[in-house]
């Protein structure tokens, strides 16, 4: 997974967040307060395709949250997304796990695992950085071996 670079749009939003912090003196901010401020101060206006994007995101969230129950009574995600490129365009295709072709599920599972690994790498970098800039404090440590956590999910809920 390569290094993520902020888009010019995101860089602009990041600079607005810095301005907001300087202007208000707040060091912990909510995105809601930040959005209200950006709109009121004419720093942000909705892009033309906003309604379609919100609708698309709502569908994705609904599909992602839909679950079924396996034979052991465990919840299983019903819908899985696979990011593919077709004719030079990136598509996010959703499929129900009960009907999805094997190739779709292989792609979806691989991409979800890559997201988890990426999140863990970023968490480690963030932890290391925080610990480095606070040398006088006991380091915050987190375990990245999830085997016990994963196995624990196989037990009945009353045992968790």
UniProtKB/TrEMBL annotation:
It comes from the Bacteria. This is Uncharacterized protein. It comes from Symmachiella macrocystis.
């Amino acid at each position: 997974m390569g290094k993520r670079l902020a888009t010019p749009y995101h860089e602009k939003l990041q600079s607005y967040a810095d301005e907001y912090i300087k202007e208000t003196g707040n060091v912990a901010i909510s995105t809601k307060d930040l959005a209200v401020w950006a709109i009121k101060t004419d720093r942000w206006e909705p892009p033309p395709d906003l309604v379609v994007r919100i609708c698309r995101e709502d569908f994705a969230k609904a599909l992602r949250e839909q679950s079924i129950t396996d034979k052991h009574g465990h919840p299983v995600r019903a819908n899985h997304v696979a990011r593919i490129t077709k004719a030079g365009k990136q598509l996010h295709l959703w499929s129900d796990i009960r009907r999805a072709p094997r190739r779709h599920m292989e792609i979806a599972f691989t991409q979800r695992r890559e997201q988890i690994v990426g999140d863990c790498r970023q968490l480690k970098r963030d932890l290391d950085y925080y610990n480095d800039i606070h040398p006088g404090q006991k380091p915050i440590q987190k375990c990245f071996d999830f085997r016990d956590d994963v196995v624990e999910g196989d037990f009945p809920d009353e045992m968790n």
